[in-house]
């Protein structure tokens, strides 16, 4: 159930049965030679909406621009500063808290968001702890990377072996090919599997990873793989959402 497609009466009725909500969060950044700039936001949104439909859970609007400063040397990439993203996440959560939501389950599509979103959760908790006193955290927040379940990891290993990598991965690119079949394509890439390594700022990133990929071979991506990845991710993330909202 998408929050944007229901009325406030519907939300009021929903809150009588559940105080949990799913919030997709991604990024808008380069994804190598054949991956879409929207990959991380689109995949998070798609998996989150699949979970929402499966469980009848509300899904908030997607936070589509994340913390991606290291991608800014590639055209089209956008970022929020960590401090801005913390403020965005807090304001989103606190808007919903005002109505009685207490369980905030972020379906994340971008590794670069993890540290910042986790810091935003700590800000929410700190505010409650400092202002209200006591130690009764009735509000809980969780970040769940859609690619992290054991089923997805096994599937990635089966399909891509050591060519999954950590950015512009064949798993995430396959997922977007499943969602938007007209975007499926292969592009010559050299070397076939990109190098691994670390990075600091945007120039350092581009110097180390000139075509944008890290450790991956996204030419292995197909829409058919994406369908399997989607179904597995929805199943695993749904299970975690139920466990989280029961806590
Ligand atoms: Ni990505």
Biggest sheet character: 4 strands, parallel
> Largest beta sheet: what is the strand line-up?
2-1-3-4
CATH superfamily: Creatininase
Give the overall form.
globular
Which ligands are bound?
nickel (II) ion
Assigned CATH class: Alpha Beta
> Termini distance?
22 Å
Please describe what this structure looks like.
The protein has 247 residues and is an alpha/beta fold. It has one domain (3-245): Creatininase (Rossmann fold, 3-Layer(aba) Sandwich). The chain is 46% helix and 8% strand. It has helices at residues 8-17, 39-55, 82-97, 114-132, 150-160, 170-179, 202-208, 223-246, and strands spanning 20-25, 58-59, 103-108, 140-145. The protein has a 4-stranded parallel beta sheet with strand order 2-1-3-4, sandwiched between helices. Helix 2 (39-55) crosses helix 8 (223-246). The mean pLDDT is 96.
């Amino acid at each position: 159930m998408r929050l944007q497609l229901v009325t406030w009466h519907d939300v009021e009725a929903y809150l009588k049965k559940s105080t949990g909500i799913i919030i997709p969060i991604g990024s808008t950044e380069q994804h190598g030679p054949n991956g879409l700039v929207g990959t991380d936001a689109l995949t998070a949104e798609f998996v989150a909406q699949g979970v929402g439909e499966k469980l009848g859970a509300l899904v908030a609007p997607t936070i589509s621009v994340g913390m991606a400063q290291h991608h800014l040397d590639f055209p089209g990439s956008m970022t929020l500063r960590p401090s801005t993203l913390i403020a965005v996440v807090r304001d989103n959560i606190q808007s919903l808290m005002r109505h009685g939501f207490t369980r905030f389950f972020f379906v994340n599509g971008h590794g670069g968001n993890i540290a910042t979103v986790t810091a935003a959760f700590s800000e929410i908790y700190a505010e409650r702890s400092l202002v209200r006193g006591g130690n009764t955290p009735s509000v809980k927040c969780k970040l769940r990377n859609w690619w992290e379940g054991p089923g997805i990891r096994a599937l990635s290993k089966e399909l891509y072996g050591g060519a999954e990598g950590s950015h512009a991965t064949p798993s995430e690119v396959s997922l977007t090919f499943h969602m938007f079949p007209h975007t499926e394509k292969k592009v010559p890439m050299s070397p076939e599997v990109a190098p691994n390594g670390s990075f600091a700022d945007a120039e350092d990133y581009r110097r180390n990873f000139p075509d944008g990929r890290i450790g991956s071979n996204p030419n292995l991506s197909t829409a058919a793989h994406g369908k399997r990845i989607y179904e597995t991710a929805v199943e695993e993330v749904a299970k975690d959402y139920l466990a989280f909202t029961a806590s």
